[in-house]
Design goal:
By secondary structure, the chain is an all-alpha fold. The chain has 35 helices and 2 strands. This is Pentatricopeptide repeat-containing protein.
């Protein structure tokens, strides 16, 4: 058998594997079996050539996903070498059957005839993904050290990557620090691993250190650095990286573009993200999803929905990730009709079995005021995970049915599903709405003592709301003062909201002052405090608060109300005359108000500066007066 012949067959088999042409590959297999040169190995030259062909057969079947056929070829091979073992190991590992692949690895080690090499180790390490693989990862690390292969740069790189994937960042960093020689893959692996494990500042520090090293970063390195910027909202650093990738010509790479859009969106610089989106030559599903989520996270719900509609109309392939992202946009001011259309699309595409999508539907319907439909979706889910339970518990809490929310929590535990930190936020809100202070505090303590969870700012704010709504404002203040973390807007918003409910002006001023210190450009604390003063008849204090807001250059956003009619959302502001049917609407409202007065309705005018008393002045159908009267009613 000539060398040219064996190389030709090997090349054909390689092409079959790459193109997944198992039909041609199996025909070549039949030819090999019929040729005695490949079956009966006589001399050394024949053996080497035949092994190349047999290993190529093995790899071809593995690449075509035919692992059973690959195993059969492996068993029938007249002779094997380390390449043969590596081929069968990688074949199973790459096709998702790690147990079989690792079984062959152990069999190779136990045979005594073959010794693993760097390819054997990197194949096993590539499959170590998740905390469940940490022990195995450490065992392979031991083999690497014992065999002296830690000097192999590809093995060390694989160790760094696998440790970070297993959530063991310290070990990953240690392997990197102990490497004598590092290439761009080494640096990128550790920068990416640190960012993915939320050590974003350390990741960026290492990226800066790399700039002074001999190794030149590649586009994957910049991608990892942008991920770190997203994690800590490092807008300045992101802009610098943007400038570098622009100079290097990486800016048109789809992944880089999506990463830049993501970091700009997370840093609140939506305009920059939109410019990236608009200037992109090619837009894929990932870029559109990133922009959609970016709009949603920054309060541009309408724009996010427009992106989604554009995606559907332009024929972009919609996947479950896109659908779950757009479902998160829906709220009380969003079109329920559009939400139902998205639901229809989900059914049409067969996404309803996707847990993220079904959970998104539960949230969408509950936020749009359709609790019954949320319950229907929840009941239709065959396998409910913690997110499913969290969604339905939050739905009932959102609709004020706290007792049912607590009931569902007990059902969740009976179902064997452990609560998450999100579960406790919903439970605290549920207890707050029904006044179960002691029960709520039990939940708060149990999440730490029983489940070992560290409360987030949302949990602290929920506790303040729980105490505040129950009228325990002093206790709420003491709770805040006892926190080991610095309170943010959520805390002061909860306390000031409770003060609004109970009309406590002194505590309200304290909460508002603290809120202004944290967020000086926010008009809400001024407005809420002014309303508290109005409710107590302290008009001068109210006037001083509004004057201070104006002096600080803080503008109050116009209040809006809305209603959906025939899948169209109609929005209104005070004294709104822009609607095409404004005169008819105001005339109807005026007539309704007359009927209400005739029935004895007395408007609550504590929260408005001016009210037209019908005993002093005849009621007229003036648009501005009507809107003010309606504001007093609402």
């Amino acid at each position: 058998m000539s060398l040219t012949c064996s190389r030709g067959i090997s090349l054909l088999l390689s092409t079959c594997g790459r193109e997944r042409n198992v039909r041609l590959g199996s025909s070549i297999h039949a030819f090999v079996l019929k040729d005695p040169q490949f079956v009966y190995l006589g001399y050394q030259f024949n053996t080497q050539n035949a092994l190349v062909v047999w290993n190529s057969l093995l790899t071809m079947y593995a690449r075509c996903g035919r692992t059973y056929d690959a195993a059969q070829v492996f068993d029938e091979m007249p002779m094997k070498d380390t390449v043969s073992w590596n081929s069968i190991i990688s074949g199973f590992v790459n096709n998702g059957n790690f147990n079989m692949g690792f079984g062959y690895f152990k069999e190779m080690m136990g045979s005594g005839c073959f010794k693993f090499d760097h390819a054997s180790l990197t194949t096993i390490l590539s499959a170590c993904d998740g905390r469940g693989f940490l022990s195995l990862n450490k065992m392979i690390h031991g083999l690497v050290v014992l065999s002296g292969m830690e000097r192999e740069i590809s093995v060390s790189n694989a160790l760094v990557t696998s440790y970070f994937r297993c959530g063991c960042a310290n070990s990953g960093r240690q392997v990197f620090d102990e490497m004598d020689v590092r290439n761009v893959i080494s640096w990128t692996a550790v920068i990416s691993g640190l960012a993915q494990n939320e050590f974003c500042e350390e990741s960026l520090d290492l990226f800066v250190e790399m700039q002074g090293a001999v190794v030149v970063p590649n586009y994957l390195t910049y991608l990892s650095a942008l991920l770190a910027c997203s994690g800590i909202k490092a807008l300045g650093e992101a802009r610098q990286i943007h400038g570098i990738v622009w100079k290097l010509g990486f800016h048109s790479d789809l992944c880089i573009e999506s990463a830049l859009m993501d970091v700009y969106s997370k840093c609140g610089s939506v305009q920059d993200a939109w410019q990236m989106f608009e200037s992109a030559e090619v837009l894929d599903t990932i870029a559109m999803t990133v922009m959609l989520v970016g709009f949603a996270q920054n309060g541009y719900e309408e724009e996010a929905l427009q992106i989604f509609v554009k995606m559907v109309k332009s024929g972009v392939d919609i996947d479950p990730d896109v659908v779950s992202a757009v479902l998160g946009v829906f709220g009380s001011d969003t079109s329920l009709g559009l939400g139902r259309q998205v639901h229809s699309l989900i059914i049409k595409k067969g996404f309803i079995s996707n847990s993220f999508v079904s959970n998104g539907l539960i949230n969408m319907y509950s936020k749009c005021g359709q609790l019954e439909e949320s319950v229907e979706i929840f009941n239709s889910i065959a396998r409910r995970n913690s997110v499913s339970w969290n969604s339905i518990i939050a739905a009932y809490a959102r609709h004020g049915n706290g007792y049912r929310a607590l009931q569902l929590y007990e059902e969740m535990r009976s179902d064997g599903v452990d609560p998450t930190d999100v579960t406790f936020i919903s439970l605290l809100h549920a207890c707050s709405h029904v006044g179960l202070v002691n029960k709520g505090m039990e939940f708060f303590e149990s999440m730490q003592s029983i489940y070992g969870m560290t409360p987030r700012m949302e949990h602290y704010a929920a506790v303040v709301d729980l105490l505040g709504r129950a009228g325990l404002l002093s206790e709420a203040k003491s709770f805040i003062e006892g926190l080991t973390v610095k309170p943010d807007i959520l805390i002061w918003q909860a306390l000031l909201g409770a003060c609004s409910i109970h009309g406590d002006a002194e505590m309200g001023k304290y909460a508002a002052d603290q809120w202004v210190l944290v967020s000086p450009d926010n008009p809400v604390p001024y407005v809420l405090l002014a309303n508290i003063y109005s409710s107590r008849g302290r008009w001068k204090d109210r006037a001083r608060t509004i004057k201070k807001m104006k002096e600080m250059g803080v503008a109050k956003e116009t209040g809006t109300s809305w209603i959906e009619i025939e899948k169209e959302v109609h929005s209104f502001v005070v004294a709104d005359q822009m609607h095409p049917r404004a005169m008819i609407i105001y005339s109807t409202l005026s007539e309704l108000f007359r009927h209400m007065r005739d029935e004895g309705y007395v408007p609550d005018n504590r929260l408005i500066l001016y009210y037209m008393d019908s005993d002093e002045k005849e009621f007229s159908v003036d648009l501005r007066d009507t809107s003010e009267l309606l504001c007093s009613m609402w």
